[in-house]
Amino acid sequence: MASSIDCPDRAPRAVSGAARRPSAGPIRLRTGAGLWAVVLVVLAALTGCGAGSGTGARDDPAAAGTAREHPSANAPAAGAPGTAQGRPATEAPAVIPGLGPRTRAWIPGDARQVVVVTGRDRNANHSTAVLYRHTGTGWEAGPVWPARNALRGWTDDHWAGDLRSPIGVYSLSDAGGLLPDPGARLPYDRSDGFAVSGTGFEGEPLEGSFDYVVAIDYNRTPGTSPLDLTRPLGADRGGGIWLHVDHDGPTQGCVSLKKQHMRDLLLALDPALRPVVVMGDAASLRE
User: Fold this and answer.
1) What mean pLDDT comes out for the span 134-159?
2) Whose CB among 2, 63, 86, 177 lies 3.0–4.6 Å from 79's, allowing a Cys bridge?
3) Are 195 and 178 in contact (CB under 8 A)?
4) Which distant-in-sequence residues (6+ apart) come within 8 Å of 11 by Cβ?
5) CA distances from 84 to 93, 95, 134, 138, 236 (A)
């Protein structure tokens, strides 16, 4: 969420088109588990990136509804010692670097695009983001992008207003923004509802933070606009957790990227590749 911005109230948008998946769950996505709805909220009340009052984001990899409780049989095995997980340095690694067995087990077996957001530590609000794509034999990494997360860092038990970003694995199924669709393959909702004003935690202007948005499927219903306020887990568990444009300050729970990098991400994400985001502090993701 932008430095914790809230979007204007907006009624749920009707879903149409085969591009929208019926259900993709939030944290620890469980294959076949229905994804939950989400949120956003009003004006520029600075309360939770795409959410409004009570729109935090829930961090627990199971609370959001589609959390994987057990390691997947499809989870890749750790590679042998050596370069690139036991593979020649010129080949894509068999497993995504920096992710431990528990985290890898949360990634659905059919996911072929994974955005990894790694925080510096549990209480830091600076992080990095990398888009990985499975080549058929290994994971190929894109460029490393600087990113920001919530003011107080990360948590695996997120509640509205805690100013921490949720740790977990979440599907990415819907996008939108104040600006016209740049050519996204995810369903894109162009709306004035993404307009925001005011200032962030460090006095930085929030305007333009929601020019481009990708909804993180935490406590939301996939197949709806990021502006949809439905929260399956309840408002107290937060919501409106997005990937959005960086405003040069920490967020209320979202992850933010530079504008060009957000546009690049929008153009790259492909629903046919079942994209997910893996997010958290480095130590937690190594588990």
Assistant:
1) 97
2) 86
3) yes
4) none
5) 5, 9, 15, 10, 42
